[in-house]
Amino acid sequence: MKLLVAALESELVAFPEQLPGFERLVTGPGKLKATYALTRALDAAPYDEILVVGTAGALDETIGSGVHEVHWAFQHDVINEDGVRGEHVSMPQRMQLGEGDVSIATGDSFIDDAEAVELILSLGGRLVDMESFAYAWVAEQFGVPIRIWKAVSDNAQDGANLTWEQAVTACSHELRDRVREVYGV
C-alpha cells in the first residue's frame, strides 16, 4: 500500500476519495503539522511508498509551470549556531530525494517579496513550500521511500492573475493527471 499525502484538502480536489493502492493523508500546512501527521501515519501502518502531491511557488524563472519531481529539499528559514542561513543546528542541511536539480526550499512563511526570493535563490532553492523538507525527513526516519511532486501555483512575489482557489484547483488536476500517467490509477 502507498500513502498519498497532501498538506491541504484543496490540493486533492481532482482526486477521487478512494484511489486504488493508496491511502490518503491530509496533514495541514507547515512543517510541524506535516511532521506530526506523517509520523502518526507511518507509526500506525506500514507503507511501501509515500507520494506527496501539492503546490509550490516557483522562485527560479527557468523552472516553468507544470508538475515537477523534487530531487532535494532544505529549510530556508533556519540558521545554525554559526549564523549560516539554511542550516539547522541539529537537522541535515538537505534531504536528497533523487538525482537532478529540482530543489525545494521549505519554510513556515509565505514568500512574497523580492528580498526573500533572492535569499532563497542564493541558497539553491528553485521552488518553495511549507512541508517538503519535513515529509522527506520523516520518511527517512521510517525508511520509507518518498516521492514529492509539486505543481507550480505561482511565482513567488508576482501578481498572479488567478485566485488561490483557481490556481490550486488547476494544480490538483495536473497532479491527478501525473498520478494516472505514472501509477495507472
UniProtKB/TrEMBL annotation:
UniProt xrefs under InterPro entries: Nucleoside_phosphorylase_d (IPR000845), Nucleoside_phosphorylase_sf (IPR035994)
Protein name: Nucleoside phosphorylase
GO BP of this protein: L-methionine salvage from S-adenosylmethionine; nucleoside metabolic process
Organism the protein comes from: Microbacterium tenebrionis
A single Gene Ontology CC term: cytosol
Source domain of life: Bacteria
Pfam family for this entry, one: PNP_UDP_1
Domain Nucleoside phosphorylase: 103-174
GO molecular function: adenosylhomocysteine nucleosidase activity; methylthioadenosine nucleosidase activity
